Amino acid sequence: MTTTRPARTDLRELPGDAGLPLIHQSWDFVSGRLTTSRARFDKHGPVSSMRALGKNWVSALGPDAVGEVLTNRNRVFDSGPGWGFLIGPFFRRGLMLLDGAEHHSHRRIMQEAFTARRLAGYLEPMNRTITESLAGWPEAGMLAFYPSIKQLTLDVATNTFMGAKTGVDADRLNTAFVDAVRAANAFVRFPVPGLRWSRGLHGRTTLEQYLTPRIAAKRAGDGTDLFGALCHAQVEDESFTDADIVNHMIFLLMAAHDTSTITLTSMAYYLATNPEWQDRCRDESLALGTDTVAYDDLDKLVALDLVMKEALRLVVPVPGVIRRASADTELLGYHVPAGTFVAANLWGVHHFEEWWPDPERFDPGRFADDRREDKVHRHAFMPFGNGVHKCIGMYFGGMEIKATMHQLLRRYRLSVPDGYEMPLDWSSLPRPRDGLPVILHRL
Ligand code: HEM
After folding, report:
1. Residue 302 and residue 282: Cα distance in Å, rounded?
2. CB of 107 sitting under 6 A from ligand 1
3. DSSP state of 356
4. Pocket flag, ligand 1, residue 384 (CB < 6 Å)
5. CA of 410 to the centre of ligand 1 (A)
6. In angstroms, rounded to a whole number, what is the distance separating the alpha carbons of residues 257 and 56?
7. Using CA positions, which residue lies closest to atom 39 of ligand 1?
8. What topology is assigned to 92-311+387-409 in CATH?
9. Which residues fall within 8 angstroms of residue 407, CB to CB, at 6 or more apart?
10. Extents of the domains making up the chain
11. How far from chain centre, in Å, is Cα 307?
12. What is the whole-number distance in angstroms between the Cα of residue 222 and the centre of ligand 1?
């Protein structure tokens, strides 16, 4: 039997178009318009070429193409050089920016900080920080939810990750994270004072200066927070150097902070606009009978888990994943030359009606055991990615989100003004343009 090899194509022969003169698809790319539209899929199919930010790209759309990039069977789609182009100067040598044997070895060591025993240990200080942070919220009235919950997750990150209250440092660190993350989509990609790229570099320096002097004390301590856990993590004879710890901490703080913030924000929005689901989640939390959730009780918050999954589907916190081909390869039969950047779109995976019925509708029941719409395709639901770079903080993030929502729902009823629809800015990680005005009613 003979097999037909797919035709070898030059990148220029892939479906695609040149876009605008000079800037090509750069503006669509950095504005997030390219990420959150299916027009390219309709016009060019799952694999197409484009030019943005001075580079040749392949756009991978839909679960087949994105799944193939992330599972990376031929080990040619490298994460480090891919992400490195967008965020390397700000998050260099973070776990997601390593590949191959080095990534494997660092991931094995880091895994020691994410065991069930470690997670259970993080939950108690996490719960305490959430309680303290919520105590500062108003009893009732309008609250800009996004900045308030961002402050709360920052408090959780600094306390649970570093075991320290940052006090006056909190604002400085918050600005540093935000600047470093937003620099990824800078249009001008070299330092010009006041512009995104330059602010990102400054943010990185601020984080290094905060962490480095604290390592010695963490190594000497008993290490129950994540910073301490990284300082003590060891597999056989391998452990992290001081430089590794700073690099990993900066990346972890970023990876945990914005993703949890946007997930809590979209959950609050959907709970406020779907009171029946809000009641179901609150009833479960009230039934637990404790102000703070215990590690063994997390699985009892079944409705909250469904709501979290649906919020992650609709407002995927990491809407796209970047790789670069280290050698000539193929993607769904199309030739991808070495050196090509690949944008694997997670937003589309969650929003195309070929795989999700009524995709824009908030319907957490689609994840319930009797429906499991996510099972329609192996790669239909990937908010945490897939393959060797799949999110190491998936359970940590889920724990933080549920622990926060548990306390929030026992304390408040949430609503939004009539007819309100949350406007999202997708130019970096998604966030509400208006901060999400939520009306709090104290229970
Ligand atoms: C809702 C919350 C979160 C979402 C949606 C999320 C999403 C993701 C995604 C999509 C990736 C894969 C990126 C790629 O393949 O290029 C990833 C990787 C990663 N995430 Fe998360 N994340 C979340 C929370 C967290 C938390 C809480 C932490 C740490 C405490 C964390 C740490 C990491 C790390 C270290 C990686 C890189 C893993 C590797 O390269 O081996 N994430 N995350």
Report:
1. 11
2. yes
3. S
4. yes
5. 28
6. 31
7. 389
8. Cytochrome p450 (1.10.630)
9. 127, 130, 131, 134, 291, 292
10. 92-311+387-409
11. 17
12. 26
pLDDT in tens, the chain (443 residues): 334 444 445 666 788 776 665 666 666 766 667 777 888 899 999 999 887 777 888 999 999 999 999 999 999 999 999 999 888 888 889 999 999 999 999 999 999 999 999 999 999 999 999 999 999 999 999 999 999 999 899 888 878 887 766 566 667 777 887 777 777 666 666 777 878 888 888 888 988 998 899 899 999 987 788 999 999 999 998 999 999 999 999 899 888 888 999 999 999 999 999 999 999 999 999 999 999 999 999 999 999 999 999 999 999 999 999 999 999 999 999 999 999 999 999 999 999 999 999 999 999 999 999 999 999 999 999 999 999 999 999 999 999 999 999 999 999 999 999 999 999 999 878 999 999 999 999 99
CA 393–ligand 1 middle distance (angstroms): 6
- The minimum-distance atom of ligand 1 relative to the CA of 161 is 30
Residue whose CB lies within 8 A of the most ligand 1 atoms, among 126, 391, 392, 404, for a mutation test = 391
The two tokens of residue 74 are 């031929």
* Dist. CA 1 → ligand 1 center (Å): 44
Q: Which residue has the tokens 């995976």?
A: 349
Q: What is the 3-state secondary structure (H, E, C) of 239-296?
A: ECCHHHHHHHHHHHHHHHHHHHHHHHHHHHHHHHHCHHHHHHHHHHHHHHCCCCCCHH
260 CB less than 6 Å from ligand 1? yes
What residue's CA is closest to ligand 1, atom 6? 384
Instruction: Check pocket membership of 389 for ligand 1, CB cut-off 6 A.
Output: yes
Half-sphere exposure of 144 (CA within 13 A, CB side): 9
